[in-house]
Write a structure and sequence with these properties.
The complex is a heterodimer of chains A (288) and B (161).
Chain A: E1 6-8, H1 13-22, E2 26-29, H2 35-40, E3 48-51, E4 61-64, E5 68-72, H3 77-82, H4 84-89, H5 91-98, H6 103-108, H7 111-117, H8 124-130, E6 134-139, E7 142-147, E8 152-154, E9 157-158, E10 165-171, E11 178-185, E12 195-203, E13 209-217, E14 224-225, H9 227-233, H10 240-253, H11 264-287
Parallel strand pairs in A: 1-3, 2-3
Antiparallel strand pairs in A: 4-5, 5-10, 6-7, 6-10, 8-9, 11-12, 12-13, 13-14
Chain B: E1 4-10, E2 13-19, H1 25-32, E3 51-54, E4 57-60, E5 73-75, H2 88-96, H3 105-118, H4 124-130, H5 142-152
Parallel strand pairs in B: 1-5
Antiparallel strand pairs in B: 1-2, 3-4, 3-5
Classes of the chains: A alpha+beta (288), B alpha+beta (161).
């Protein structure tokens, strides 16, 4: 049973930010595919709900070869999944969206909403962090942009301050010879991952690893980079043994919790295996 | 809490509702408008029994506030038939026996129709992915997939004379 709330429906972004600044105990809804569930479970009972679903100026996907990709806050998963520029330039993002929940959820839910919800099992964050995405947030006082890597604070907690909305995701154009891949482990394809791993590998001229990003999903309170495994890979000639070792390092570095779906040990094991596989996949894509 | 007056367009008809903003779309459709074909199943965006179409796209009506659906064209299972004639997906479900208890059927039909709206010639795999948000606990899905395939193959094309 959802508790009563007062419904705020701004027509423009400016109105939305003004309303958000004015009202305490206010939550933002767009697709609501995560929010309404936790409201119904009584986990939160905000006094106000600010509905930005129809703030159309935030509904866009833009791309150019210099600035990269920009996805507005009210853009649905489905729009990202079907976008030709995303397909052409960020196939890993499309592959991730394809496996995110069910088509009904993707039709109404938004990628920025998923990030703002900050469930550590969310699919978009690991892939976007591997792609070096930034997130633009804004309030009535102004805007700021941060690395998505720094956006997550704890379970369901983000760096958003009072009155701040997520406005946009920005994904730079990948460097040449870069491959990115993501895989989650789950029992039903449309479920959230028991764990997930995203990796991005950039090769230099002699086909050694110039840079690697490894991001672990649902292996701790926030989507987290395995920095030790990234450092281990830098400068190395890549092969299966190296990927196996990187998997081990990532598995040692992560701190998953046990829940009904998997024990801590099993999650660590999955991280080690998935990291190895996903690094190989990213490497093969980078090599072309 | 302030009630709101909204207009929902369901199956081509405008309904004026005076509702608590927490009213879910599935509640508006079933309890206020009285169209009970749409089923309320899990209430946690899992089972898909409450699937309806918003502007031709499938959504789970237990995860949409009714106030958010204002201004769109909502289609429920009751809106699939035209002039008293069942839609091709409905005929196909009948012919293939694509249901047993029937509880998932309304949602399944809406997902099938939304899939065919977007992709008139889906592969078997695309059909299975298209209905992955709908859980059926008795037919085992095969007859449902066959029914959607039959529509895609044009078995139920209208005879144009």
């Amino acid at each position: 049973m959802i508790n009563d709330f007062n419904y705020l429906k701004p027509g423009t972004l400016k109105e939305a930010l003004a309303m958000y600044a004015e009202h305490d105990d206010c939550k933002v809804i767009c697709g609501g595919q995560s929010l309404l569930i936790i409201m119904r479970q009584g986990m939160i009972a905000p006094e106000y709900l600010l509905d930005i679903k129809h703030v159309d100026e935030l509904n866009y996907i833009k791309f150019d070869k210099k600035g990269g990709l920009k996805i507005g806050a009210t853009t649905t998963h489905h729009a990202v999944e079907k976008s030709d520029v995303v397909k052409a330039n960020y196939p890993a993002l499309v592959a991730m969206e394809n496996k995110l929940a069910s088509i009904q959820v993707r039709n109404w839910g938004t990628i920025c909403g998923n990030l703002a919800h900050a469930d550590p099992a969310g699919d978009p964050a690991p892939v976007l962090i591997a792609l070096k995405a930034n997130i633009k947030v804004g309030s009535a006082k102004g805007e700021r942009t941060m690395a998505l890597d720094e956006f997550f604070v704890d379970y369901f907690e983000t760096a958003l301050q009072k009155g701040e909305l997520v406005l946009e995701i920005q994904v730079p154009v990948p460097q040449p010879k870069t491959g990115t891949a993501y895989q989650k482990f789950n029992l039903l394809e449309s479920d959230m991952g028991i764990v997930g791993v995203a990796a991005s590998i950039t090769l230099n001229g002699n086909k050694k690893c110039k840079e690697a990003k490894i991001v672990l999903g649902n292996a701790g309170p926030i989507p987290k980079r395995s920095k030790r495994a990234e450092e281990f890979l830098a400068g190395k000639a890549l092969n299966d043994d190296v990927f196996t070792e990187a998997g081990k390092i990532a598995s040692e570095e992560c701190e998953p919790v046990a829940d009904i779906h998997a024990s801590e040990e099993y999650r660590k094991h999955l991280i080690s295996v998935l990291t190895k596989r996903i690094l190989k996949k990213a490497y093969e894509e980078a090599r072309g | 809490m302030e009630k709101r007056l909204i207009t929902l367009n369901v199956n081509g008809i405008d309904y004026e509702l005076y509702i608590n903003p927490k009213t879910l779309l599935v509640e508006a459709i079933r309890d206020y408008i009285g169209l009970t074909g749409t089923k309320r199943g899990c209430d946690t965006v899992s089972c898909g029994a409450c699937t309806v179409m918003i502007d031709g796209m499938s959504v789970k009506s237990c995860a949409v506030l009714a106030v958010q659906a204002e201004g769109y064209k909502i289609t429920t299972v009751e809106g699939l038939e035209k002039d008293g004639k069942l839609a091709p997906v409905q005929e196909a479900f009948l012919d293939e026996g694509a249901y047993q208890c029937g509880f998932c059927t309304a949602g399944m039909l809406m997902s099938a129709q939304a899939l065919l709206n977007e992709n008139p010639n889906p592969t078997e795999w695309e059909i299975r992915e298209g209905i992955e948000g709908n859980i059926c606990r008795c037919t085992g899905y095969n007859s449902i997939v066959r029914a959607i395939q039959a529509v895609a193959k044009g078995k139920y094309m209208e005879v144009k004379s």
